[in-house]
Protein 1
Amino acid sequence: MIPLQPFKKKDIQALMGTQKRITVAYGDGIGPEIMDATIRIMDAANVGLAYDVIEIGEKVYKAGHKSGISPESWDILRQNKVLLKAPITTPQGGGYKSLNVTIRKSLGLFANVRPFRAYPPFVPSHFPHMDLVIVRENEEDLYAGIEHQQTSEVVQTLKLISEPGSEKIIRYAFEYAKAYGRKKVTCMTKDNIMKHTDGMFHRIFNEVRLEYPEIKSDHWIIDIGSAVVAARPESLDVVVTLNLYGDIISDIAAEVAGSVGMAGSANIGTNYSMFEAIHGSAPDIAGQDMANPSGLLNGAFMMLVQLGKADKAELIQNAWLKTLEDGIHTGDVYRLNRSEKKVGTREFADAVIERLGQVPEKLKAVKYNPDVKIQVVVPEKPAKKKELVGVDVFIDWREGTRDANEIGDRLLKNVSTDKLKLDQVSNRGVVVYPNGMDEIFKSDHWRCRFTHPEGGTLDNADIIEILKRVQKEGFDFIKTEHLYHFDGERGYSLSQGE
């Protein structure tokens, strides 16, 4: 690990009363190099921080901590409340979980904020006026990482979206736009397909935006929205979206702006925050003094603003912009006809330090409002009236030619009760019984939907009775999903062809 300079342990202890303490993680791969560069620049600017270093990442994973972080490091994180983190490597296989996701979820870092700006002509970009901020939901969605193999042929992952989580990130996006003078917030979902998960996110967006009439707002389906990020990013201002989509379009935006190595990220919660680069640990160039520290630096700028040190953020960021403007570039952005000098990680940091106190002449200098504070409050809402109206019983079955009529007829005749009658059988979301098409491909994973024939309500005893009858008929049920109405509205999806 590269040692911290100029602070030694005794110096840090002496400064505890006057300096804000943050937690620092050097990470893996290029992490130690870009963190050393970032720390040296901040120290040269006298930002007034003291650092507690923790070990995270690959070594910690392999030492037996499946989350990639030790209990002692958790204690330091909770104490300091702010983490500046370099990229880490998550070992493949072995049940290792993403440390980034673990930290975000454990500390309630619900908002991932990623600004993307073009720096023409010094960093090549086809979109010289690009100035886009992606606000990504950071705790939910498919990043819950809940997966199960249910049959020999089918694996499931759960997409979990909550109403409070959606409202919190959407409100944050509008408050961010309001605080930083942004003119428009765009929501991106896939609710033409996922009508309940993404549909809820879109619905809440439509409700919240009414409270901000001064800010323009619109919505894009994520596939065409991603194309807009790639082809017309200058038409976007603030984008708010779900976890997975935000991760994907952030990399698109970073590349379109000039380089993934330039982008920083803020992870914001009510009590804690984490700041980082958006790129990975790049082990292929580790230790070669080649990495661009700009992504982590941009994360540090956001951290300083968050800590009430907006003047220091301005000082360093303007020096960084002047460095780019002077053509001092690392290899990822160096161009023969645009750059003056190709430098490594250390020399780039030295160049930024040399320019502290200078401002760019061609690029737009930054100026932060030191009084900006973003607070989001989502009041708890009363629970909806919940009525059990049916059950989906999932069955592992691959006998004979996988004739849906065979499984459907047996369930209808021998399993259905007065309260729960087989309504349909679907396979991979497509109705195959009754009247299914022979051409439909069928896996060994079947969804058998039972509902009350007269539309009445049920209780769990009715579900248990159906499962007993399914088992008695010789079918292997592997999971169930209860079907509910909430305040009279259907809370489950229909099948294709239904």
Protein 2
Amino acid sequence: MGCTTILVGKKASYDGSTMIARNDDSGSGHFTPKKFVVISPEEQQRKYRSVLSHVEIELPGEPMRYTAMPNAVEGKGIWAAAGVNEANVAMTATETIASNPRVLGADPLVEYHAAKEGEEELAGGIGEEDILYLVLPYIKSARQGVERLGKLLETYGTYEMNGIAFQDQSEIWWLETIGGHHWIARRVPDDVYVVMPNQSGIDTFDLEDAFSEQKEYLCSADLREFLSGNHLDLSLDGTLNPRDAFGTHDDADHVYNTPRAWFMERYFNPHTAKWDGPEAEYTPVSDDLPWCMIPEKKITVEDVKYVLSSHFQGTPYDPYGQYGDKALRGAYRSIGINRNDFVSVMQLRPGMEQDNSAVEWVAFASNAFNTLAPFYAQVEETPEYLSCTTKQVSTDSFYWVSRMIAAMADASYGKSLFHIERYQDKVMAKSHEIVGRYDKLLQKEADALKRQQLRRSANEEIAEMLQEEAADTLDKVLYELSNQMKNAYSRSDA
């Protein structure tokens, strides 16, 4: 399924935080209700069985508590998606990517095969449904996350190609699966950001480091043999480009994927390269867009939200645009689409007590019309407004209210955009104020239990504010859309 990921190193962020963020998008033709919860050690299974692939995996006996964004409707598995554990290690899983036919021929995907007459059931590998649940409760650093997932991939295989981000206060690591059992991972340099739009992204890989000091690169144990034995390295100078070796450059990529990376890098580095016009160095269809770049200024949470909400504003490709060539509007797949399930921005802040460092910013539904709100991650439960999602539409649920706001605002875009902008700015400003206020209270409080209570109180206050502002915005966009009904008349009855 489609997703978009951005990773921000600690020297590239505005406050020295590491940040990882991802839009989780439903596949075409459906919407997946999500909720924001805490999974306690008691809730974690000891023997896991995947719903989709039926793979069974024994899990370690001492899991940690962690936040998660699972499916709200049962039936297709947990799909925990994104979260932060007790050790302040965060993870987002997954960004769907693709491998080329040469890779998939050399190391086929491990697909599930149902039992047939005379044949037993054959379990598949692990996938997006499973990965966060199998890894996050058991790791105490981002590097450990790469190592644990790597072993799982080598042992059980996977039935799909994915990219996964791991984060702690010091480091961010990005892992990409290759075929059924192989993988590579690269540490994100501290001074850069990374963009990932459903494509193999890593564009350089140091095999020498991966098989020696492993400072910046990690990979499956037999990657060298896999490369040479299957003639996968396409470089002329011996410098491995994983994007060429393992990825795809299909025509569909140039409509669906690559333009998203172009927009994000164009936003963060407007003067670094020429992005527009006939002499552009990079275009929406460039296959050589950098995996990572040093931004021209430090990146904020608001910046991350803006690019992950993009519908190509300021370009001819904006489906809501009112200028330029009409034929170009909607030419490329937007980042903020109708099928965004949620976005999470996990911020691990420096110079703070361990239990106060992690803040998880959360929004539901279409990013073009929603707003982020922050929540302390080291808590035992999340506010009901974000955790109560069911399959039933309800204004008591932030997920469903966000869906309603988005649908109504889209249908009344010209009149409702002002309300959406006010809503987003107001919630973000109030959120920063509340977190700043509680950070000061937490710094003064030494008792662990009272600190836990303060974090819970902060989250509840943010949720109450969020519910109030969302309800007010829903009222406003409903009014605007109601005035556009086809049976509307300007004359009053009196």
Protein 3
Amino acid sequence: MVVSGKNISKVSLRMRRGEKPVSIVVTEAVQVESLDLDAQGIARLQPNAEEAAQGQSGKVIFIQGALPTERVTYTITQDKARFSKAKVLDIIKPAVFRAQPKCKAFGVCGGCTMQHLDIRAQIAMKQRVLEDDLQRIAKLKPQEILRPMGGPAWEYRHRARLSAVNRSIKKGTVLIGFHEGKSSYVADMTACEILPKHVSDLLPKMRQLVMGLSIVDRMPQIEVAVGEPEDPLSDDPKKNKPVTALVFRNLKPLTGADEQLLREFADAHQVWIWLQPKGIETVAPFYPETGKLCYRLPEFEIEMPFKPADFTQVNHMMNRSLVSRAIRLLEAKDTDRVLDLFCGIGNFTLPLARRAKHVLGIEGLASLTTRAQENAQHNGLIDKASFMQSDLFLVSTETIASWGKADRWLMDPPREGAIEICKALADLHAQSSQLLPERIVYVSCNPKTLARDAEILCHQAAYVLSAAGIVNMFPHTSHVESMAVFDLVKPKTEIN
């Protein structure tokens, strides 16, 4: 069926449960105006007579695979009253910043939706998202736009959660990989360009391994964690190669034959196998029984041991740059006491301890504060860094008072942001408290919650947004990592 672009708004194609997806070819080309964070091109049709009479604008078309400035034809896959979703059919006029996707699973796997967009354009788009959110939500414009931070575009992902699905009946194999876009289905992929090559090469071999297990239907997940080489300068190949841990989520006990298969796989591919029979607390090494996962921050002479279940940044190279910039922007002196909120295993805390007089790291999970304390001991910083557990989503002025005075704060919250902390700072400002830090460096993984928190800090707590910029921690994805600097505006002293 072929429908013209002028008449498409009259077609009713609402999908019901159990119905097959619609497929309506539109041969009249449209101009793509912009791009959303799902990497869908956005075009707008001219309003028909009825819409124009009612003062309405034309229908919006979200077109998968289309880029701004392009003229395309498309196939509608879902139609609603005010918008349609579609896939690009033909590109009449390609964008100058269009790129050739590197991954064979592009368009099926939901992990890297922006591979068809030049990496420089990806960075520019993410910077625009950050600035737009700050302006729209917080009514703020940074005094300085920080230079965007970029790094390796491929083979950067050192942590991943792979799903495993037994498809022996229909496919004759097990599928191991990431989910398809906005779907519970696992993509049929045998390689991944953002995983380290040695991990990508293991994907077909992991299929064979899981197929051979007696619990093939009860092994739904494989967690990957890659650490730096034990000794990069060693001549021993076991020490100068990255350490790779695979955590198998076994919902049933392994048989003796299963265990032997896992040991043989570990020996053949030089990986460290862990098992997780129940909750996250049950993650434990299986074979070999000992090993070492770590990443390093050479600028600060820090080595960070971690376990596969610990939260760590997935991009080791970008993490080095992130930590370096954050600490440089914080401007901590050797006389300063510093707070590191949402400290995790000490990613920022320990480098800060190399610069400041003392750093208090605060985290909500006791297991993470324990790991951070161990890492402080490992790096000889036990006297300059301490850690405490506190629910950072339940913070009051009294909570902040219990932390003690610190002129420098670093915050690295999850996607939910740090709204309760910001509200408490606003309350302290209303009380003319001396507990307000002079500078806050806020590391964000969600520009919308950053903007929300910035609105509170700048409009209710007497801070200014001194600087902000993005960190391209996850190339080819819609994830926007950013950093912002807030400075306290000190009241002017009266001159008699």
Protein 4
Amino acid sequence: MKKVIVLSRVSTEGQDLTQQTDEVLREVHKDGFADSNIIIIEDKESAIKLSEEERHGLNMMKEHISTNPNIKCIYIYELSRLSRIPLVLYSIRDYLVERNIQLICLKPYFRLLEVDGTMSQTGSLMFSLFSSLAESEMMLKKERMMRGRRRNRELGRSVGGRPPFGYDLDKDKSFIPDPQNSLIISRIFNDYGYGNKSMKEIAVELKEEGYFANNELNTVRLKIQVILNRTIYKGEFPYPPIISEDLFSTVQLNIAKSSQNRIVRKKEPFLLKGLVCDSRTGYILSTNGAIETYFSKHHSGVAIRRNNIDPVVWEHSKLMYERYVMNKDRLLQQIKSEYQTTAKKISVVEGEIKEIGVKLERTEESYILGRISKKKSEQLRTRLLEEKKLKRCRREQLIDQFIKKRKQRKYIILDTINEELLTYEDKVSIINKVVSIVMVEKPNSTYSIVKVYNRINSLVYVYEVHCWRHTWTLIRESTSNKDPHIQIKAWAR
């Protein structure tokens, strides 16, 4: 039994899709088709913006044709219901002709194929004519749309899309301050401009008060950064001002100062790599540099950001190191030995530089006395000067190393650790001398329990870490009756 498809489409909510379908159905019934043999496809989407592959209605039509060989005819109200893009229209025409499927258009009325399946001359002419008309109408619609947008833009009205955060639209689609969100905007600018608060501190406070509840803390901080840099909030057509120009200028000045003071550092290795364990499972936590986190690879394992645990363990290690490990006399002897070794290396290099100077004088003398040619003299001189340059660079490197080592070890002479003089490797070395293992428990997302087992004695220090604020509190210290390494070995089997 032959089947037909009724394809209807509207592009706006104001158009009546049902009425269009009913008119086409009356024609289908006149041609003798029963309802059981009619497939109705109704579509609400633009024929201007979407390609053939993106059109839901066309895809449905092709799917029915590919799965039902009895479909022999497509009914449409007018040609533009298929598409307004000529390339799409001709592609559909060729698709139907190849499969010997008739296309019947009501407005104006024409049939694409003859009875024998060949393309009708009249149908072909009508198809070409109304394809051009559909394209012209599409271009006119686009022009009217763009003209309307330009007019709205000139009048300070919205041209579509969601208003920027802090603004709303009145009945004329003009921008007005949003009663609630504009207060948040004002607060962010005042806290950063006059309140000496960082973007992160502002983000934490807003999160704790219930704002931006669906966003991560870092996302909120980035949103605040964008807000503080947007000029529209001081009043910029078509947006009314939410803050004063003076406040905006103050904020920009603070941002510039913060940018100048910020030190761009290369990501260092994790301080506690290989030391942090999941307190529940006993497994050593892995590290993820992209998200700066210690995490368990096992199911339901714990995860903790490095900025919530590294500072805790470092401050603990520094205190223990100063209290139990530092030996002023031994380290002073070590420093003296390093000085002597480096001084010898510098002396050797300086001797080599002097020797090159002597060779240069001899080369000059040989040239003056005619023992070597000018060309040979220049070659020797170039080579010797290059060697001298390299030796001088080596000397400077040794001197820099000497000074650097002296600075790195200066904290020892003072019987206290000056963190500014330490390299990352120095910190790791100190931690490994003090800490045996670190156990982490995370009851919820707001805080963690960190247990630090000492290598230098049997004490265990238990800290409560407040994750959002990156602060910690010592809960207790006690004597451990268990070897944490034995626990880990047993749990990991």
